[in-house]
Amino acid sequence: MKYILYHPDTGRIKKLITMGVPAIKGRPVAEHHRQSIEASTGETLAYLELAHDSTVEYLTHYVDINTMMVIPKTQFQGSWNKLEITADGIDEAILSGLPEGTVIRVDGKDIVVNDGSFEFSTEQSGFYRIDLVSAPYLPERWEIIANEV
């Protein structure tokens, strides 16, 4: 048996289970009669059984929550206007071409984008790591440099 655990709202695959009869919180998956479970982290995850010969990877695939199909992620096609800004709280680096609900992670904090673009500005100089973590896209990472005024 082969299963995936994924986020039911985003389709992002959290874990692949491929050995023996998998257990979730000490109980075999087959005993779960719901399509979702509560993980030890407190988050609710859904699960799907996969074909034994499937080649699903959590970094390169996601679950389309409308069709319940496991689909390969695609390369993000959006772009930044710049990757270097002045740390004055006004100058912005803008990532455009984002569909509604895209998740961007800034130094470990997730931000959901609902208007097609992500704007980054700061008053603190330094390097900022920006990650694209949305399910339909392959993971991508950028670094924004914020220079002192």
Describe this structure in words.
By secondary structure, the chain is an all-beta fold. It folds into two domains: 2-72, no CATH class; 79-147, Sandwich (Immunoglobulin-like). The chain contains no helices and 16 strands. It has strands at 2-6, 13-17, 23-24, 27-28, 36-38, 44-50, 61-64, 69-72, 79-80, 84-86, 93-96, 102-106, 109-113, 117-120, 126-132, 140-147. The strands form five sheets. It has a five-stranded mixed beta sheet with strand order 10-16-15-12-13, with no helix packed on it. A four-stranded antiparallel beta sheet has the order 2-1-6-5, with no helix packed on it. Strand 5 (36-38) and strand 6 (44-50) form a beta hairpin. It is elongated, with a radius of gyration of 19 Å.
Secondary-structure class: mainly beta
Individual helix count: 0
* Poorly predicted ranges: 26-34
Compressed to H and E, one letter per element, the order equals: EEEEEEEEEEEEEEEE
Strand tally is 16
Number of separate structural domains = 2
Distance between the termini: 58 Å
The whole-number mean of residue pLDDT values reads 84
Radius of gyration: 19 Å
What is the topology, as strand order, of the major beta sheet? 10-16-15-12-13
* Helix percentage range: under 10%
Q: Please report which band the strand proportion falls in: under 5%, 5-15%, 15-25%, 25-35%, 35-45% or over 45%.
A: over 45%
Main sheet overview: 5 strands, mixed
